[in-house]
Amino acid sequence: MTYNFSQTCTISISILTSLSMALAACGGSLDTPPTATSQPSTPPTLAATESSTETSVALAHTIEISPTRLTVPAGMWARYEIVGLPGWDGASAPAWAAGDQAGDVEVTFLTDWGSPAAGMLQIHVKGDALANEQWGSTRTIAITATTPGRTWHARPEIDVVPCEPAFERGIFTRTLGDHGVPRRTGGPTTLTYGIVSAPMQFCEGQAGGRLIVTVTKAATDEGDPLAEPPRFSLYRYLDWPPEITFLGGYISNVEEVALGSQGQLAWRIETGVYVLYFDGRQLIDAATPVYVPDPGTFPAAAVTYRIEIE
User: Fold this and answer.
1) Which residues have C-beta within 8 Å of that of residue 54, sequence separation ≥ 6?
2) Domain coverage including residue 201
3) Which is it for strands 200-202 and 272-279: parallel, antiparallel or unpaired?
């Protein structure tokens, strides 16, 4: 099988090789480190920029966007960042519109925090995009921002590549010391830590099947059995390649798609990259602050779970 994580990185691996090995060869890893080396920052906002008499007409009407080209497997999510609108006076919020001619890419503007544009364009490439042979593998996204008297344009491109599934069935044990990551649902005061599973990448071939997760046991930081299964959720990553050193943020890099109940979770599979998150607060003594600066200090806190895919 072949994983394509960028235009310049192509790795051939067997079906039993995890997605983490592929990203590791590209300078990243889908195996979570014990601690996050970076924290999500306040999202960029669309700032008004000074108009210059030397600015060309073309520049003044071009949306500044980064990157201008993405490589994304079919069925995955990715993001562009709106950097700015040259010449925008800030007097009126721009109206945004976007789409691709083939209809294979869905675009959502993330306009949180009261900004005319919060800086992110969420992209979802449909799982069967490559079946649309009329358009080949490259999609051009037409984006416009309009205010009274002015319109800006951008036409970033997406290279759609085949999706390769990467997931494992079986029984797994993960510890807070080795697989703990921070999660934020907003600002710094919402920071907590939990245990994450290995990421699971589902493609069109798995869509419609069932993911079944069962927690078989859990232990506290003292090594004592937990009386009840910890709370846990299934999250979908919203960027590509997925940033796995943290979950959430001001503009979250994940979205919750399913919530476990009494140690059980059953979910109808959709294309994308997913991760299980087990809330670490139930695994640590109640006297410990919610903010845990180093989850590696709790090596005994662990959860064991079974993954089935039907």
Assistant:
1) none
2) 170-309
3) antiparallel
